Amino acid sequence: MEEGRKGYVPVLVGKEEKMMEKIWVPIKLIKHPTIVELLNKSADEFGYQHQHGVLRIICDAASFKAFIQDASKNCI
């Protein structure tokens, strides 16, 4: 079992379920309006029952990583 990272939440990100990548998101960003919107869209797509303990976001992984990096710099 993979050890968690303190202060981060694992999120599976990708446009296809078989190609999802685990990205560690800082907890301080989990309530960011963009992430909340992406999570809501993913819940509409996957449903809440399909999450299996790990959040999933339907989004290009490279774009999501760039967003996280940028948002982390601007978040206090």
Notes on the structure:
This protein is α+β, with helices and mostly antiparallel strands. It has one domain (8-74). Helix content is 37%, strand content 22%. The chain contains two helices and three strands; from the N terminus they run E-E-H-E-H. It has helices at 33-46, 61-74, and strands at residues 8-14, 21-26, 55-58. A three-stranded mixed beta sheet has the order 2-1-3. A hairpin with a 6-residue loop joins strand 1 and strand 2 (21-26). It is globular and about 30 Å long. It starts with 7 loop residues before the first strand and ends with a helix. This is Auxin-induced protein. One of its GO terms (biological process) is response to auxin. Belongs to the ARG7 family.
Secondary structure layout:
Layout: E1 8-14, E2 21-26, H1 33-46, E3 55-58, H2 61-74
Parallel strand pairs: 1-3
Antiparallel strand pairs: 1-2
Pfam families: Auxin_inducible
Protein name: Auxin-induced protein
Family: Belongs to the ARG7 family.
Write a concise synopsis of the structure shown:
This is Auxin-induced protein. With 76 residues, the chain is of the alpha+beta class.
Number of domains: 1
Give the strand order, joined by hyphens, for the main sheet. Answer: 2-1-3
Oligomer: single chain
Largest sheet: 3 strands, mixed
**Binned strand content:** 15-25%
Distance between the termini: 32 Å
Q: What do the pLDDT scores average to? A: 84
Radius of gyration: 12 Å
Structural class: alpha+beta
Pfam families: Auxin_inducible
Protein name: Auxin-induced protein
Family: Belongs to the ARG7 family.
GO biological process, one term: response to auxin
